[in-house]
Write the C-alpha cells for this entry.
Amino acid sequence: MNSEMPSPPLRGRLAPSPTGALHLGNARTFMLTWLSIRSRKGSLIYRLEDLDHPKVKSGAAQQAQDDLVWMGLDWDEGPGCEGALAPYEQSERTGDYRRALDELIRQELLYPCVCSRKDVENAQSAPHANEYGMRYEGTCRGVFESFAAAQAHLGEGRMPVWRFKSPEGRSTRFVDGVYGEQILSVADDVGDFVIARHPDGAGYMLAVVVDDAAMGVTEVMRGEDLLPATHRQILLAEALGLPRPTYIHTPLMVGPDGRRLAKRHGDTRVASLREQGMAPDQLVGYLAWTLGWGTREQRLMPADLLGTYDPESIPVESFVCLPENVPM
C-alpha cells in the first residue's frame, strides 16, 4: 500500500497591485506565471494586492485586468469568475490577517516597534546595509506591552509596526525554480522584520502568506527583487502551521542604469503601448524574445508558447530594456 500523500492540485496566482500601471517587467512576469501553470494544466487565481492604500491609483485595478486580458492571459478564479474562495481583493480579507496576527501574538512571536528608518540606520553595527537591507537590532523587543502603548508613545500622526522575532541559530532553505538553492539566517542578516504597518496585521508580508495558504496556492512565481522576502515568508508560514508553496523568481527587466523599470526610463506601460497601436502578439513576441525565445519581430500569443515553454530556459540575468528595441 502506498502511504504517500497525494500532491495537492497545481495552483498559481496572478497578483497585481493597483499602485501603478502594468509595465513591461510586470507583464513578462505575469506571462511566465501563466505559462508555468497552464503548461501543466493547473489553475490560476487572480488576486488584487490592494493593501497599500496611500499608493493605490484610481482605475489601476481595472487597467491591470484589461491589460492582461488584452495580452491573452486568463484565470479561473477572480474578477469575472468568482470562486468559492472569494473575496479576491486583499482589502476585503483583513479578518483573516487579524486572526493570523492574534495567533502570532499568542505565541509571543511579535512585538510593536516605534523605530523609524533613520533610527534603524543609526543603530547599524555595520557601516553599510547588506543585500537584504538594514539589519534591525531589536531595539523595541520587550519595550511596549501593546500596540496601543507603542502608538501612545509615538503620538498622533504616526503608527507603530509589527515585527516578527526572527529565530536565532537557524537558517531557512528552499530551492528556487530559477536561482537554485537559497539559504539564509534571517536573524543574522535581517533581524526582527516588519510584517505589517497596520494594527490588525493587514500588511504585504503577512497577507500574502495567509492568502496563498487560504487559496491553495502551490506555486508562487514573481520577480527576483522579492527573492529575499521569501525566507521571511517561510518563517511566518511555519509559525502559523501553513503549507509552503514552491517558489520561482524571475529576472527583472531593467533600464540602462541597471535599475528596475520606472518612469525615469521612459513610458514602458502596457496601456501606453496599446494606445500607440501595438498589437498583443507584438508585445508577447517581444517579451518572449527578451527571454531568448524567438526573434524580436516574431508575433506570438501566450497560447503559442505552451508547447515549447521550458522553465529551465529562463535566464538568470536581468534584461536591459532599450526603447529602440520595443517593436511598434
